[in-house]
Amino acid sequence: MNLHEQLGALEMGVDQLIQAVVAQQPENIPETPAQNAAPHAPAEDVAPESVAPTLASETAAPALVEGNAAVSDEPPAEQPAVQLQPTLEIDRPSQDEITMKIGNQMVALRPDQIGRLIEELSNARASMTLEQPPGIPPGWQFVSTKNPVMAVQKQSNGDRLLVMRHTGHGWVPFQFSPDVVIQLYMLLTQ
């Protein structure tokens, strides 16, 4: 299977996961943080503590979140059907594979597919209107890359494009104006 076929299979798998989530969500029920609160544990050295509340990793039990259903002692025939919100479960069956399961749909991702997913999620997150926190959140966990491979390119407006390869995120580009290049140099040489 060539790279394009693999990417197509990944995109189809992600589309199936999205369709499974959309098909299982109840209509016209507002989603609140209290509804989605569930225990979770960040993956070792990579996941920030601000991971979505319905995310379950291999160290946490799958979380099930119920919709706005009232609990009573009345017979089930008189109660409306309880619709469960699908949850995202992530497992790592081997070093070079991650499985993602939403509801009853599971997809196994290899390193190349994980890289593509990280890239797509990064691009989507960068376009969202809600900004990242301005400071480093307390308890944030990360994997750093020592002495990353990097490339620099001068832009026509005088800016510098710096691209560094992170072991988890892949190639990460940053663009600096000339005054920020000077500030960065000063910071690195203090």
Tell me what the structure shows.
The protein is an alpha+beta fold and 190 residues long. It folds into 2 domains: 3-127, no CATH class; 150-189. 29% of the residues lie in helices and 23% in strands. It contains 4 helices and 9 strands. The strands form 3 sheets. It has a 4-stranded mixed beta sheet with strand order 1-4-5-6. It has a 3-stranded antiparallel beta sheet with strand order 7-8-9. A hairpin with a 2-residue loop joins β4 (88-94) and β5. The protein is elongated, with a radius of gyration of 21 Å.
Give the total of domains. 2
Task: Pick out the low-confidence regions.
Answer: 24-72
Number of strands: 9
Q: Identify the strand order in the major beta sheet.
A: 1-4-5-6
What structural class should be given to the helix and strand makeup? alpha+beta
Residue-averaged pLDDT, rounded?
73
- In helices, the fraction of residues equals 25-40%
Shape call: elongated
* Gyration radius over CA: 21 Å
Beta-strand percentage range: 15-25%
Order of helices and strands: HHEEEEEEHEEEH
